[in-house]
Amino acid sequence: MIPAPKAFLVTTAKNEAPYFLEWVAYHQEIGFTDIVVYQNDSDDLTHETLAALRDLGAIQYFYNRADVGMHQVRAYTRAAALPAYQQADWAMALDMDEFLLIKTGDGMLSDLMKVLPESDCLHLNWRIFGNSGYEVMTEELVTDRFKMANYQLGEVDNFGAFKCMFRPTLFNRPGIHKPNKALIAEDKIRYTNGSGLAPEQYLLKNFNSTDPGGCEFAQVNHYIVRDLCSFMLKSARGSAHQANRTIGHRYWRMRNKNFAIDDSMQPFQARIKVRMAVLDDASGGKLMKLRETAIFTHLARYYTMLQEPQIRAFRAFCKANPNAVDYTKTPRDTASETLDDTKTTSKTGKARKPASMTATAGSVSKKAAPKQPTPSDHATT
Q1: Average pLDDT of 66-75?
Q2: Which of 159, 174, 271, 339 counts the highest number of beta carbons within 10 A?
Q3: What percentage of the chain exceeds 70 in pLDDT?
Q4: 378: which residues sit within 8 A by CB, 6+ positions away?
């Protein structure tokens, strides 16, 4: 019998408190043995939730100081110095809105290794999920609630972004989409994708690829917008890696993909809920209370934001455009023109872009941020 692999998972976060319990429970359930979370500048019970999970031994948790736009890269560099990373058989970096879905056997990492035993680095494509028509955040699990997604790769002839699971002994550190810098000759590394295909059987371009096999064995479910409430809060928060990127009208119209049903997470629901309950019981009921309070906090911020006319107008735009542009039916050059609706016209007649949501949200009053973690919570690398 092949022993279960030692598998390392790292993520970065800012104001993701409602989602940690489900995300950690799920990835523990499928076989990740070491989960590491770096957070920065959160004020929504993220620190308290992560500290509770750390105290149970469920995760390693570090506060992550870095320059603007560099938090992910800094976190991954620190993660590569951890013994858990260096001793792992496999490593992966995922964002908090990404879930690795294994579609073979019982959905475990060990099942994936059985069908892909000759791999060193796996290109695992995203399947992007839309808001499924939901506006308001609830206590439902992300993996249960959102079932409307993009077309499956392989059904349409296009590229999709991927994330990588890789052998850490062969690369310098995790990266946002793929590991940083091979430590041996590239032609010695065995690459495959989520359908078990070799690189000559699919097309690669930067961190995008095709998959004629339709992600047969594994994919990354990317709940990129969640519900409209969560998306608008994300818009106000901005991108962790691309500090100058506006998450607004265009982002919604390109990524809120509700084209096809994907209910492949349904078999995991009972397992996720059981593991969440086990973690909550071990915390003395603290984790579930923190989750409920964090959801209430996010909802309160959403309704406070809606007092701003520009925010209400943005919500109206999103509701009036409930689906992304379908690139299988609209050529990309034409689609780009139709998406140019974020521009307004100045008095001089020249097009200009409106203020970003990040700037607008700055005018919304917030409670003072809680005390940041003590030095014992900080990364030492």
Answers
A1: 90
A2: 174
A3: 82
A4: 62, 63, 65
